[in-house]
Amino acid sequence: MSSDAYPSMPQWLRQRALLTPDRLAMETAHEELSFKQLYARARQAAGGLRDAGVCCGDHVASLQGNTLDCAVTVYALMLLGAVMVPLNTRLSPMELAGQINESSSRILISDRDNAATADQAVTGADCAIIDVAALTQTAALFDDHEAEIRLTDPCTVIFTSGTTGRPKGVVLTYGNHWWNANGSLINLGLQQSDMWLCCVPLFHVSGLSILMKSIIYGMPVYLMKKFDPEQVNQLLMNGKATHISVVASMLRRMMAITGPNSYPSSLRCILLGGGPVPTALLQSCLDQQMPIYQTYGMSETASQAVTLPPEYMRKKSGSAGKPLFPLQIRIEADGRTAMPNEPGDILIKGLTVFSHYLRNKEATAAAFEGDWFRSGDIGYLDEDGFLFVLDRRKDLIISGGENVYPAEVESVLNGCEEIERAGVIGIPDQEWGRVPVAFVSLNEGAYLSEAELITTCKTQLAAYKVPKRIFVLDELPENASHKLLRRNLYAIYEKMTHEHY
Amino acid sequence: MSSDAYPSMPQWLRQRALLTPDRLAMETAHEELSFKQLYARARQAAGGLRDAGVCCGDHVASLQGNTLDCAVTVYALMLLGAVMVPLNTRLSPMELAGQINESSSRILISDRDNAATADQAVTGADCAIIDVAALTQTAALFDDHEAEIRLTDPCTVIFTSGTTGRPKGVVLTYGNHWWNANGSLINLGLQQSDMWLCCVPLFHVSGLSILMKSIIYGMPVYLMKKFDPEQVNQLLMNGKATHISVVASMLRRMMAITGPNSYPSSLRCILLGGGPVPTALLQSCLDQQMPIYQTYGMSETASQAVTLPPEYMRKKSGSAGKPLFPLQIRIEADGRTAMPNEPGDILIKGLTVFSHYLRNKEATAAAFEGDWFRSGDIGYLDEDGFLFVLDRRKDLIISGGENVYPAEVESVLNGCEEIERAGVIGIPDQEWGRVPVAFVSLNEGAYLSEAELITTCKTQLAAYKVPKRIFVLDELPENASHKLLRRNLYAIYEKMTHEHY
Question: AMP-dependent synthetase/ligase domain: from which residue to which, for each copy (chains A, B) (predicted)?
């Protein structure tokens, strides 16, 4: 590597197809593809995208379910050197339009299931829709003969809700994805029989990271269109997969229907992320000696950043574990490194930490302190170096693995002319971990029913962000300078519903 | 990673000791160390080296056998940010002095076994000897609290013989070692039960790379002081190790004494490198269904660069396989990329390729064509992308895994005042693959017996470089411009010995 400190690598899928062409790459309920076939499919899709005008460096949005076509799209954009902007299919057309606009995507790849939403999302925008099914029908194979990547190049932009309500585009480089795949590999090992069951969304970093691992490791992925606990159980019981990524609500639904059967030993890793795990659920997993790897991570760390291996589940119950090899964790209290067991801000440093927030210098600057990323979460390291996460990012509501920021929901409610002020909090929920609940005060003389308010939210917000209840109060609790006191809303909620938690 | 495209990593051993402190790190016939203990030992040795004046960036030579102390030295120097220059213990004092001088090493770490040679090697040089046994006796632990590494920093300098006779110092960065470990990991997988038997020298990249893998993977190494086929077989038969690195001559000696027993299935990888493998040996391995991974690599690629997995041993017999994931191979014929099956120069590109030759701009420039490293070897890629190595670097004699360049031996012979001219070639040998044989013409009136000539060589050359036979000719074959015609020496050798090959 004489001429550059950070030289290029061969295109990952191309290299994988060269190294292990005949190995199984991807399986769905209907189809199986080897790496050679997957590569051919991706080259064809890349040909179609090139014909549609996609160039190296372009941002290209995608609104697709968990299909083979979607996976092929991910790889095709990588072959072209284009940057994929995967959009959450649960978002409202208005939210989607915002992210298409924010990312300057001039093409939106959509599947049939999301075609109607896609149409609404691009209304009035300079963005053409491409039907993913049409992509591979006519185009000549894209010639990627000399295609290489640089680890410093951007690969994907994933939008996350922000504390201010404005979604932030997390720019992840090829290097970020590479180091995540490699850190995870060192952490979990790799065997020839490994197969990862992907039933988390490909538009989230959790799903995307499985696609990256697949072509880097040469490991097949079983891709499910939609999470279905019965189907997942059936696959796992049949020894179909060795690894699965889940969030707590998925795992609970799976375990609710396993009956007395425990999963076979072929299942060697259940990667459990996406927020806090209820103690009762963890206890059941312990009782059944399930290979649970609790993890802590986020889009900004290209997925899994900290992991607790099963052998520590009992001894370090509640811990998220230790960082992946290329990462470091620091706890900061009062501007200094905290002592063991002393809570403080969780900072993360290392090669999987994202590059920057797209066109948002302010948010980027606020997120970094030198090379250290301020996660916004609170936690501590115990005397053995295990991380315990105490509080998620201030006010963040994690609902079924999805992030909901009160500010985002509040800003929609505050947009109603009848509403004077709105406040949103997260309430514990058996099914989803937490769900948003809103409180509003109305302008003088105005009237709106709870149902009407909820309908309004539904037109503008993803279903999981819509408050499950909206209470009308005479006035919201505020401090002397009239700032909303969200924490007081919890007591009000308890009083009004007589629910204790 | 906001501030730098290539940020730092935690010190590997420190991170490993944090992540898996109690896991077994290293075992010898006499001792076992966990990663925590290994780390403590390395910090103590680093403390001793710091007290002896070793600073970050210094080149520090090492003349040690395969002992735990030697491994600790490797890690200690890494903690200090010093660059290790491991010296081949088989070299003559004169050769060693040359490499100490070439690398500006002002400290030579030696063990008892090599103390006498070390003394001779530093005579007259500005280089102090440190006895490795004394290193850990008094020093305070080195505080590496904030120690990090950059992948672009130099880590080791390994000398290889050069075509011109002048040894070249191959500068390998942390990144080179990292990418080799990771490429190998993707290639071979990783299981919790893995343990690598190291009976190749730690002063070669093959041994060094095992030490790197150990702390990156969290994998224990069984370190043998000296290769002993019986002992190795015993360890393998007892299921002690899952992986072993060997060269052909070692493997043949092992297999000669296994009798009818085949190795247990716990042995899942025999990494076979260091030059061509005789067909008969490969056939025996095939017959016994041994998990042979043939490899092609060199110091300049931080060890293993191309690997053939066992499932292709029959179908692609004689092939070195396909490149590690972060590497690419190109065959160049007549200045263009060769067609499949067309032989040409083997060029290698990627993240494990060395940085440069130490203080040797000319050799570095000659070795690189952009990012592509000219291996100097000849070979071809078949239609499936498998590499077949046809000829090793021009004139290179690989003897028992060690490189011998004719030019180096010739220059010693040419230094004798009785000798007019010398020519050296490599002759096939049952035991070592090839051995050097010399031809000399003497000055008028001079006389030297073969025994005298060999004795002269022994004082200046490592034993494996000393010609097994030295023939005195009236004159050596030369071309019109009086250049030595080495290839004609083969015919002369055949004629003189009646040996055919």
Answer: 14-358
